């Protein structure tokens, strides 16, 4: 079957008649009329060919003003890539619709996730979890040199003022303790605290907190 079989042979309208009808109904400007006529002439040329060259057609289509405005770069790249894997325009359209549907479904799931309505595991840093609360909370990495951080210092053991003036103050044990408090108080019902027995074949020590 030809790629142009979807075009009816019984149509009584030429591209010129269609153009005149559209321009009359929409009361378009001369510039818009010229653009519409140009598009219909191009389409008419494609229809007249014995076999529609899908690759040439899609390359032309994505550069037309309306399509170019609506498609994002990722969609354009996808179309140009997929066109080499299909034989008919109908097949390409079906693949494109399926891809758009999948994209919309994924976008809906991401919105649910962002609104805390999606039944999934949320991966958060302690800082980003401030003010939030969850039924079940898992806090991992509660071992010495992780929480508290290996760079943390006691306020009494170091002169902080010179470092503050240099805009490079180290984190303190007090700050690390507050972070631990934030992490543990995110749980509304169940709290699970974990740490590894070994890292790089070396035993770990549970957090002093």
TrEMBL record:
<dbReference type="GO" id="GO:0000725">
    <property type="term" value="P:recombinational repair"/>
</dbReference>
<dbReference type="InterPro" id="IPR014017">
    <property type="entry name" value="DNA_helicase_UvrD-like_C"/>
</dbReference>
<feature type="coiled-coil region">
    <location>
        <begin position="89"/>
        <end position="116"/>
    </location>
</feature>
<dbReference type="GO" id="GO:0003677">
    <property type="term" value="F:DNA binding"/>
</dbReference>
<keyword id="KW-0067">ATP-binding</keyword>
<feature type="domain" description="UvrD-like helicase C-terminal">
    <location>
        <begin position="30"/>
        <end position="196"/>
    </location>
</feature>
<dbReference type="GO" id="GO:0005524">
    <property type="term" value="F:ATP binding"/>
</dbReference>
<keyword id="KW-0347">Helicase</keyword>
<keyword id="KW-0175">Coiled coil</keyword>
<dbReference type="GO" id="GO:0016787">
    <property type="term" value="F:hydrolase activity"/>
</dbReference>
<dbReference type="InterPro" id="IPR027417">
    <property type="entry name" value="P-loop_NTPase"/>
</dbReference>
<dbReference type="Pfam" id="PF13361">
    <property type="entry name" value="UvrD_C"/>
</dbReference>
<dbReference type="InterPro" id="IPR000212">
    <property type="entry name" value="DNA_helicase_UvrD/REP"/>
</dbReference>
<keyword id="KW-0378">Hydrolase</keyword>
<keyword id="KW-0547">Nucleotide-binding</keyword>
<protein>
    <submittedName>
        <fullName>ATP-dependent helicase</fullName>
    </submittedName>
</protein>
<dbReference type="GO" id="GO:0043138">
    <property type="term" value="F:3'-5' DNA helicase activity"/>
</dbReference>
């Amino acid at each position: 079957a030809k790629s142009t079989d979807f075009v009816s042979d019984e149509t009584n309208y030429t591209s010129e008649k269609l153009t005149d009808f559209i321009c009359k109904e929409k009361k378009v400007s001369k510039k818009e009329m010229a653009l519409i006529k140009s598009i219909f002439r191009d389409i008419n040329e494609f229809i007249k060919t014995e076999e529609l060259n899908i690759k040439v057609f899609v390359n032309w289509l994505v550069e037309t003003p309306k399509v170019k405005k609506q498609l994002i770069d990722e969609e354009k790249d996808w179309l140009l890539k997929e066109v080499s894997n299909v034989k008919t325009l109908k097949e390409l359209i079906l693949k494109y619709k399926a891809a758009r549907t999948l994209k919309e479904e994924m976008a809906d799931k991401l919105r649910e996730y962002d609104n805390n309505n999606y039944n999934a595991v949320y991966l958060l840093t302690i800082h980003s979890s401030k003010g939030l609360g969850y039924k079940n909370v898992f806090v991992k990495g509660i071992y010495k040199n992780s929480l508290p951080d290996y760079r943390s210092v006691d306020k009494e053991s170091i002169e902080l003022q010179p470092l503050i003036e240099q805009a490079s103050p180290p984190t303190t044990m007090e700050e690390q303790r507050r972070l631990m408090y934030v992490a543990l108080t995110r749980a509304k019902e169940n709290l699970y605290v974990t740490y590894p027995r070994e890292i790089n074949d070396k035993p770990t020590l549970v957090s002093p907190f």
